[in-house]
Amino acid sequence: MGAEERSVDPAIKGLLKVSQSYETVWDRLDSQTPHCKFGLQGVCCRNCIMGPCRISQKTKFGVCGANEDTIVARNVVRAIAAGVAAHSDHARAVAILLAEIASGENQDYRIADPEKLKAVAGRLGLETQKELLVLAKEVAGVAMEDFGRQAEEALKFLKSYVPPQRLKRWQELEKNLYKQTAKKMGILPRNIDREIAESLHRTTMGVDHDPLSLLLQGVRTSLADGWGGSLMATELQDIIFGTPRVRAISTNLGVLSADKVNIVIHGHEPILSEKIVEMASHPEMERLAHEVGAEGINVVGICCTGNEILMRQGVPVAGNELHQEMAILTGAVEAMVVDVQCIYPALGKLAKCFHTKFISTSDRAKFPESLHIQFEEKNADEVARKIIETAIKAFPLRNKNQVNIPNHTSEAIVGFSNEALIDLLGGSLTPLIEAMISGDIKGVVGIVGCNNPKVKHDYHHTTLTQELIKRDILVIGTGCWAIAAAKAGLMRLQTQEISGPGLKKVCKALKIPPVIHMGSCVDCSRMLNLAGALAGYLKSDISDLPLVGSAPEWTTEKAMAIGTYFIASGIPVHLWPIPPVTGSQTVVKMLTEDINQSTK
Ligand code: CUV
Ligand code: SF4
């Protein structure tokens, strides 16, 4: 695959041409191609040691007798459970941090947004006229109960946030399924950890073999993410770090500095990245940077932790998933600091070809060739300082001949939390709803998810977005899509000009771009919440609204979880590449027809 076929991003095309001697994700994809067709179709099973088994025309059953429907459905459920585990473990860390701030155990963090705290508490049905830290403790308590409750009762967060019509829809579905099949099949998640555990239990050898039953457990687990873990992560992070406000930022590899110490933060959790941003502006750190001949410290983000600090602090973002190796290839990165998720283990080896320190920080994520600086929430200031000092010390080792920073940046307007959006709309959703009723806006599409080297980098993200806005469809979204759209200049006011006439009119009146950055992957919950608010306003169900979701370049199991909770919430979803389900006609039909029907 040549540089031209790999990406639409001019910064990457240029870099790939000059750095052919380094192995990247595209080269490794080439050497893995063609992929195993059993894996692509989802018909291989490694869930017990009588196997591994694979289903073909010749061998229609695994050793235990499982057929392709069972095997494909089991694999789907496992992928969803893994994705939900990632988002929800992220949420857990934030809930614990909030509890520790409330108890005074953690002095390094504080509550940045008391208003949001009260709003969340109110939503959860708590009495809000209390001292702030007392309220914080109660909110953190509700969050933690959603991880630990053993009763057959739905998540408190879900019940408090989902529109009543949708909740009723799920309850009826549970009842009807029981009536029709005489089998108990639950959809409402009871406890986040429990749904993940139950998904693993049910998919071990010899437990659940009914594809419908399995997939519904996948749905239930995904709902524990969308209306549970992810939503909790977003809400609690807003409380601790502030609710995003609209602002302009710059993006792409050109945000790296030729004269400053460049620190790239990659991964997912703002708990670490917020601290690094804060510490990097400390006069003492600036002084140390000047001592080694740098003009200062430049912190930039990649992937979702990048989205977190871009939304809340206006920190520039160097790129999305496929930029992680590219950033190191610029030769100008002193430290690539990572926490969890979407981090290629290849970074260790690549960093060794440069002066770059590849710094891992999480007790949950260690890498073969990283420098591990253990992050401790209770000692966050000190750890952040140590990381920045390590980066500063690497600066004199930068080899000027190896430096190749692409001269590409784009401006983007970002920071659209629902709170910011409603403020822009003048305090209520009325103008947006009126625009939808009048037909100026024909619908809203939420585009999310990763990059995948199997897809020309950012090609689907950017072309799909443009085709939609041309047709008067407002595009909102998160994750690596949002970074793709920002880099392509689609989040500027100028993009109004390539929109359809109705959308253009609305966006001009509101002074917003037609392409809206709503945050990181866990912030997909902001979109669910927006959909819920629209439905609530119209006293209808989410499925009555002209909403669609898409993950046109997806990679991770997390995206599988997101896609599933969107569908289950009444929003049809498009995915590309095709998920590994085509080995079972039954599962394909359930996912493409039955689930859409029954969640409508
Ligand atoms: Ni969580 S999940 S590649 S960073 S969007 Fe980016 Fe976003 Fe996918 Fe990962
Ligand atoms: Fe094979 Fe069944 Fe074991 Fe899977 S669970 S590996 S299909 S024997």
Automatic annotation (TrEMBL):
Keywords tagged on the record: 4Fe-4S, Iron, Iron-sulfur, Metal-binding, Nickel, Oxidoreductase
Source taxon at top rank: Bacteria
Cofactors that this protein relies on: [4Fe-4S] cluster
Catalytic activity reported: CO + 2 oxidized [2Fe-2S]-[ferredoxin] + H2O = 2 reduced [2Fe-2S]-[ferredoxin] + CO2 + 2 H(+)
InterPro entries linked to this entry: CO_DH_a-bundle, CODH, HCP/CODH, Prismane-like_a/b-sand, Prismane-like_sf
UniProt GO MF annotations: 4 iron, 4 sulfur cluster binding; anaerobic carbon-monoxide dehydrogenase activity; hydroxylamine reductase activity; nickel cation binding; peroxidase activity
One protein family per Pfam: Prismane
Similarity comment: Belongs to the Ni-containing carbon monoxide dehydrogenase family.
Quaternary structure and partners: Homodimer.
UniProt protein name: anaerobic carbon-monoxide dehydrogenase
UniProt source species: Thermosulfuriphilus ammonigenes
UniProt gene name: cooS
